[in-house]
Amino acid sequence: MTHQREEMLPTVDAANQNHEALDAAARVPSAADLETLSRQLNRPVRDVVEIGARCVCGNPLVATTAPRLSSGIPFPTTYYLTHPVITAAVSRLEAAGVMNEMNAELGQDAELAAAYARAHDQYLAVRDAIGERSGTGAVPEIAGVSAGGMPTRVKCLHVLAGHSLAAGPGVNPLGDRALEAIAEWWTKDRCYCAGAWDTEGQAPSQDRSRHVKTQSVDPAIKQAQRAAARAAREAAANDPAAGSTEKPTA
Ligand SMILES: [Zn+2]
Protein backbone atom coordinates (compact mmCIF):
# COMPACT_ATOMS: atom_id res chain seq x y z
CA MET A 1 0.00 0.00 0.00
CA THR A 2 2.86 2.36 0.73
CA HIS A 3 5.25 1.14 -1.95
CA GLN A 4 4.21 3.55 -4.63
CA ARG A 5 4.63 6.52 -2.36
CA GLU A 6 8.02 5.35 -1.22
CA GLU A 7 9.16 5.22 -4.81
CA MET A 8 8.05 8.80 -5.22
CA LEU A 9 9.73 9.83 -1.98
CA PRO A 10 12.79 7.65 -1.60
CA THR A 11 13.88 9.18 1.68
CA VAL A 12 12.07 10.53 4.67
CA ASP A 13 13.94 13.57 5.87
CA ALA A 14 16.08 12.13 8.61
CA ALA A 15 15.94 15.30 10.67
CA ASN A 16 12.18 15.32 10.43
CA GLN A 17 11.81 11.67 11.16
CA ASN A 18 12.12 11.95 14.91
CA HIS A 19 11.00 15.51 15.15
CA GLU A 20 9.10 16.16 18.34
CA ALA A 21 8.31 19.52 19.83
CA LEU A 22 9.08 18.51 23.43
CA ASP A 23 12.39 17.16 24.61
CA ALA A 24 12.60 13.83 26.40
CA ALA A 25 12.29 15.29 29.90
CA ALA A 26 9.27 17.41 29.03
CA ARG A 27 7.50 14.41 27.51
CA VAL A 28 7.53 12.44 30.76
CA PRO A 29 4.02 12.61 32.27
CA SER A 30 3.87 13.53 35.94
CA ALA A 31 1.07 12.36 38.21
CA ALA A 32 -0.30 15.90 38.00
CA ASP A 33 -0.25 15.71 34.18
CA LEU A 34 -2.24 12.49 34.23
CA GLU A 35 -4.77 13.99 36.59
CA THR A 36 -5.05 17.06 34.34
CA LEU A 37 -5.60 14.81 31.32
CA SER A 38 -8.44 13.00 33.04
CA ARG A 39 -9.98 16.32 34.01
CA GLN A 40 -9.57 17.70 30.49
CA LEU A 41 -11.26 14.63 29.01
CA ASN A 42 -13.62 14.13 31.92
CA ARG A 43 -12.83 10.45 31.94
CA PRO A 44 -10.05 8.17 33.09
CA VAL A 45 -6.98 8.15 30.89
CA ARG A 46 -5.29 4.90 30.14
CA ASP A 47 -2.05 3.88 28.52
CA VAL A 48 -0.79 7.43 28.23
CA VAL A 49 2.97 7.03 28.01
CA GLU A 50 4.06 10.58 27.25
CA ILE A 51 2.86 14.13 26.88
CA GLY A 52 2.98 15.06 23.20
CA ALA A 53 2.62 18.83 23.56
CA ARG A 54 2.20 21.33 26.35
CA CYS A 55 0.61 24.70 26.88
CA VAL A 56 3.00 27.58 27.58
CA CYS A 57 1.91 27.12 31.22
CA GLY A 58 3.04 23.49 31.15
CA ASN A 59 -0.36 21.79 31.09
CA PRO A 60 -0.80 18.94 28.60
CA LEU A 61 -2.31 19.69 25.19
CA VAL A 62 -1.76 16.27 23.67
CA ALA A 63 -1.63 12.82 25.25
CA THR A 64 0.67 10.26 23.66
CA THR A 65 -0.56 6.68 23.70
CA ALA A 66 1.67 3.68 23.07
CA PRO A 67 1.03 1.75 19.84
CA ARG A 68 -0.17 -1.23 21.88
CA LEU A 69 -2.51 -0.75 24.83
CA SER A 70 -1.87 -2.64 28.04
CA SER A 71 -4.92 -4.72 27.11
CA GLY A 72 -2.92 -5.90 24.09
CA ILE A 73 -4.97 -4.04 21.50
CA PRO A 74 -2.92 -2.38 18.72
CA PHE A 75 -3.52 1.36 18.83
CA PRO A 76 -2.62 3.39 15.74
CA THR A 77 -3.62 6.84 17.03
CA THR A 78 -0.57 8.02 18.90
CA TYR A 79 -1.49 11.64 19.59
CA TYR A 80 -4.75 12.60 21.21
CA LEU A 81 -5.78 16.21 21.53
CA THR A 82 -6.90 16.73 25.13
CA HIS A 83 -7.17 20.48 25.71
CA PRO A 84 -10.89 21.33 25.61
CA VAL A 85 -10.34 24.74 24.04
CA ILE A 86 -8.38 23.29 21.13
CA THR A 87 -10.64 20.27 20.77
CA ALA A 88 -13.73 22.49 20.53
CA ALA A 89 -12.05 24.86 18.09
CA VAL A 90 -11.03 22.00 15.79
CA SER A 91 -14.56 20.61 16.00
CA ARG A 92 -15.79 23.96 14.67
CA LEU A 93 -13.50 23.60 11.67
CA GLU A 94 -14.82 20.12 11.03
CA ALA A 95 -18.41 21.33 11.30
CA ALA A 96 -17.61 24.11 8.83
CA GLY A 97 -16.56 21.56 6.19
CA VAL A 98 -12.82 22.19 6.27
CA MET A 99 -12.06 18.49 5.78
CA ASN A 100 -13.94 18.42 2.48
CA GLU A 101 -11.92 21.38 1.27
CA MET A 102 -8.68 19.71 2.29
CA ASN A 103 -9.61 16.46 0.59
CA ALA A 104 -10.43 18.29 -2.61
CA GLU A 105 -7.13 20.12 -2.42
CA LEU A 106 -5.19 16.90 -1.83
CA GLY A 107 -6.63 15.63 -5.09
CA GLN A 108 -5.44 18.68 -7.00
CA ASP A 109 -2.19 19.77 -5.40
CA ALA A 110 0.57 17.20 -5.90
CA GLU A 111 3.01 19.11 -3.72
CA LEU A 112 0.58 19.21 -0.82
CA ALA A 113 -0.22 15.54 -1.31
CA ALA A 114 3.49 14.68 -1.20
CA ALA A 115 4.03 16.72 1.96
CA TYR A 116 1.03 15.04 3.56
CA ALA A 117 2.39 11.62 2.61
CA ARG A 118 5.68 12.56 4.27
CA ALA A 119 3.73 13.51 7.40
CA HIS A 120 2.28 10.00 7.40
CA ASP A 121 5.78 8.52 7.17
CA GLN A 122 6.99 10.75 9.98
CA TYR A 123 4.01 9.74 12.12
CA LEU A 124 4.87 6.06 11.66
CA ALA A 125 8.55 6.64 12.42
CA VAL A 126 7.80 8.56 15.60
CA ARG A 127 5.22 5.98 16.67
CA ASP A 128 7.83 3.26 16.27
CA ALA A 129 10.19 5.30 18.44
CA ILE A 130 7.46 5.74 21.06
CA GLY A 131 6.78 2.01 20.96
CA GLU A 132 10.47 1.41 21.63
CA ARG A 133 10.62 3.94 24.45
CA SER A 134 7.46 2.73 26.13
CA GLY A 135 8.37 -0.92 25.90
CA THR A 136 5.59 -2.08 23.60
CA GLY A 137 8.07 -2.64 20.77
CA ALA A 138 7.00 -3.24 17.19
CA VAL A 139 3.28 -3.59 16.49
CA PRO A 140 3.05 -5.40 13.15
CA GLU A 141 -0.77 -5.35 13.15
CA ILE A 142 -0.75 -1.61 12.43
CA ALA A 143 2.41 -1.37 10.33
CA GLY A 144 1.91 1.28 7.66
CA VAL A 145 -1.38 2.43 9.20
CA SER A 146 -1.32 5.90 10.69
CA ALA A 147 -4.35 7.96 11.65
CA GLY A 148 -6.65 10.81 10.76
CA GLY A 149 -6.97 9.65 7.16
CA MET A 150 -3.27 9.90 6.32
CA PRO A 151 -1.62 9.46 3.88
CA THR A 152 -4.20 10.38 1.24
CA ARG A 153 -7.35 11.57 3.00
CA VAL A 154 -8.42 13.82 5.86
CA LYS A 155 -10.84 12.06 8.18
CA CYS A 156 -10.14 13.64 11.57
CA LEU A 157 -8.71 17.10 12.00
CA HIS A 158 -8.16 16.51 15.71
CA VAL A 159 -5.63 13.82 14.84
CA LEU A 160 -3.82 16.10 12.40
CA ALA A 161 -3.80 19.03 14.81
CA GLY A 162 -2.51 16.77 17.59
CA HIS A 163 0.24 15.54 15.28
CA SER A 164 1.24 19.09 14.40
CA LEU A 165 1.37 20.12 18.04
CA ALA A 166 3.51 17.11 18.91
CA ALA A 167 5.82 17.34 15.90
CA GLY A 168 6.09 21.11 15.73
CA PRO A 169 5.42 23.16 12.61
CA GLY A 170 6.54 22.02 9.17
CA VAL A 171 5.83 18.30 9.53
CA ASN A 172 2.10 17.94 8.90
CA PRO A 173 0.91 20.63 6.46
CA LEU A 174 -2.80 20.07 7.08
CA GLY A 175 -2.40 19.85 10.84
CA ASP A 176 -0.46 23.09 10.70
CA ARG A 177 -3.23 24.62 8.66
CA ALA A 178 -5.87 23.50 11.15
CA LEU A 179 -3.92 25.17 13.96
CA GLU A 180 -3.65 28.37 11.94
CA ALA A 181 -7.37 28.23 11.25
CA ILE A 182 -8.26 28.10 14.97
CA ALA A 183 -6.15 31.15 15.80
CA GLU A 184 -9.18 33.18 16.84
CA TRP A 185 -9.83 30.63 19.62
CA TRP A 186 -6.38 29.26 20.46
CA THR A 187 -2.75 30.13 19.71
CA LYS A 188 0.30 28.34 21.05
CA ASP A 189 1.84 31.48 22.56
CA ARG A 190 -0.92 31.95 25.13
CA CYS A 191 -2.45 29.96 27.99
CA TYR A 192 -6.15 29.21 27.62
CA CYS A 193 -6.36 26.83 30.55
CA ALA A 194 -8.19 28.96 33.10
CA GLY A 195 -11.75 27.67 33.34
CA ALA A 196 -11.26 25.23 30.47
CA TRP A 197 -11.94 22.19 32.67
CA ASP A 198 -13.20 21.40 36.13
CA THR A 199 -10.38 21.70 38.65
CA GLU A 200 -12.59 21.19 41.70
CA GLY A 201 -13.33 17.92 43.44
CA GLN A 202 -11.95 14.56 42.57
CA ALA A 203 -10.49 13.77 39.18
CA PRO A 204 -12.61 11.42 37.03
CA SER A 205 -10.63 8.33 38.02
CA GLN A 206 -7.88 6.83 39.94
CA ASP A 207 -4.90 6.82 37.69
CA ARG A 208 -4.51 3.65 35.71
CA SER A 209 -1.80 4.77 33.37
CA ARG A 210 0.73 2.18 32.39
CA HIS A 211 3.46 4.71 32.93
CA VAL A 212 2.73 5.27 36.57
CA LYS A 213 1.99 1.64 37.28
CA THR A 214 5.34 0.48 35.96
CA GLN A 215 7.48 3.55 36.34
CA SER A 216 9.95 2.20 38.86
CA VAL A 217 9.53 -1.48 38.11
CA ASP A 218 12.37 -3.64 36.93
CA PRO A 219 12.15 -4.45 33.17
CA ALA A 220 12.20 -8.18 33.85
CA ILE A 221 9.20 -7.83 36.15
CA LYS A 222 7.46 -5.73 33.53
CA GLN A 223 8.08 -8.44 30.98
CA ALA A 224 6.70 -11.09 33.30
CA GLN A 225 3.65 -8.94 33.99
CA ARG A 226 3.07 -8.54 30.28
CA ALA A 227 3.36 -12.27 29.72
CA ALA A 228 0.88 -12.88 32.54
CA ALA A 229 -1.50 -10.31 31.08
CA ARG A 230 -1.21 -11.96 27.69
CA ALA A 231 -2.02 -15.35 29.18
CA ALA A 232 -5.00 -13.88 31.01
CA ARG A 233 -6.23 -12.30 27.77
CA GLU A 234 -5.95 -15.56 25.94
CA ALA A 235 -7.85 -17.29 28.70
CA ALA A 236 -10.51 -14.58 28.58
CA ALA A 237 -10.74 -14.86 24.80
CA ASN A 238 -11.69 -18.51 25.22
CA ASP A 239 -14.36 -17.61 27.73
CA PRO A 240 -17.13 -15.53 26.17
CA ALA A 241 -18.54 -14.70 29.60
CA ALA A 242 -15.34 -12.84 30.40
CA GLY A 243 -15.64 -10.52 27.40
CA SER A 244 -14.19 -7.11 28.05
CA THR A 245 -16.19 -3.93 27.80
CA GLU A 246 -13.09 -1.81 27.50
CA LYS A 247 -12.88 0.61 24.65
CA PRO A 248 -9.54 1.20 22.97
CA THR A 249 -9.34 4.90 23.67
CA ALA A 250 -6.70 7.07 25.21
ZN1 LIG B 1 -2.16 26.75 30.07
From TrEMBL:
InterPro entries: DUF501. Residues 200-250 are annotated as: Disordered. Transmembrane segments: none annotated. Residues 224-242 have a biased composition (Low complexity). This is DUF501 domain-containing protein. It comes from Paeniglutamicibacter psychrophenolicus.
